[in-house]
Amino acid sequence: MINNPTVSIIVPVYNVREYLPRCLDSLVSQTLKSIEIITIDDGSTDGSSSILDSYASKDERIRVIHVNNGGVSKARNIGLDASKGEYIGFVDSDDYVESQMFEILLNAALETESDFVQCKFDIVGDNSTVHSSLNNKETTVIDNQKKIVELFFDGVIEASVWNKLYNRSILSQMRFPIDWTFAEDFSLNVQVALKCRRIALINDVLYHYYSRGNSVSHEEISDRHLKGFSMYDFAKKQLKDEDVIRIVSEKEISESLRFLDSSIGHKDVSETSIDNLVRRIRAGRRLIKSNRYMTRGRRFRARIVCLSPTLYIFVVKMAKKLR
């Protein structure tokens, strides 16, 4: 166990035996040596636990915490509580990273005095060719809090936590919502975006996100997917700048319509959730005409929702049946 790590890397693990060695190999080979790798075995039953213990026996920087299955948010929170680093990073256990990732992110964080640094990522599959861009030294620094919030809701700053390195102080008192099983990253990063004063964006592709068809992000929609909308309410209550509130509200309307279209007629989405999405769209009707996140066609659809949600729901249901 390393006593004073500069960076803590938190890795929640659940039944990823096939991919786990690749992930761990990419972490133990980091060019930045002052790291601790905190792995949380979230009740794995496929042999992932023994892989973790084996790696930890060979590398003192790896800590393994075995817990009963409680979900990724609880596992990450356990990792946060156990971490000692001045900076915090997250890696998902079926993904992998470039060997220079945390050295590059840390250097950028120190040089720019940023609250967090974000790198680019690519999406890989079993037969994908990985293209990293370690020669791109361009770093963009944003030190305007209004702009940071705008870039977050514009999607330039991604909702994910795994392609970022956070200053420990920015995560003070923040934790992932343990009763959520979707949009947990979004929840944390909304809070981070509202608190940050300076960030840095790196153009290097340093993180490789592995896409699996059976991962949580590919599951069909249900009520639990809609909990994340509460963070729009949280953000609007915290913000004072009307221009930024408008940005958040426009994004909320756009996402509400997207989720409404997916939710209508779905057996795992309740009428209450449908009504909530409709309410959000109708509450923002004055922002539909100039909504920067919606095409002309989607603005028209949103106006129909405002005029007659019953008609809109009926038409979408019929269209789905005819497909």
Notes on the structure:
It is built from eleven helices and nine strands. It has helices at 20-28, 48-58, 72-82, 101-112, 145-154, 184-195, 230-238, 242-263, 271-283, 296-307, 309-322, and strands spanning 7-13, 35-42, 62-67, 87-90, 96-97, 116-124, 139-142, 164-167, 199-210. The longest helix is centred in the C-terminal third of the chain and has 22 residues, at 242-263. The protein is globular, with a radius of gyration of 21 Å.
Topology as a string of helices (H) and strands (E): EHEHEHEEHEEHEHEHHHHH
Shape: globular
In the predicted model, the low-confidence regions spanning at least 5 consecutive residues are 214-219
Distance between the termini: 57 Å
Strand content of the residues, in percent? 15-25%
**On the 0-100 scale, what is the average pLDDT?**
92
| Tally of helical segments | 11
- Major sheet: size, sense and barrel closure? 9 strands, mixed
Oligomer: single chain
SS class: alpha/beta
Portion in helices: 40-55%
Number of strands: 9
Based on CA atoms alone, the radius of gyration comes out at: 21 Å
What key phrases describe this protein's structure?
323 residues, alpha/beta, nine-stranded mixed β-sheet, 11 helices, 9 strands, 17% strand, globular
Could you give the topology of this structure?
Blueprint: E1 7-13, H1 20-28, E2 35-42, H2 48-58, E3 62-67, H3 72-82, E4 87-90, E5 96-97, H4 101-112, E6 116-124, E7 139-142, H5 145-154, E8 164-167, H6 184-195, E9 199-210, H7 230-238, H8 242-263, H9 271-283, H10 296-307, H11 309-322
Parallel strand pairs: 1-2, 1-4, 2-3, 6-9
Antiparallel strand pairs: 4-8, 5-9, 6-8, 7-9
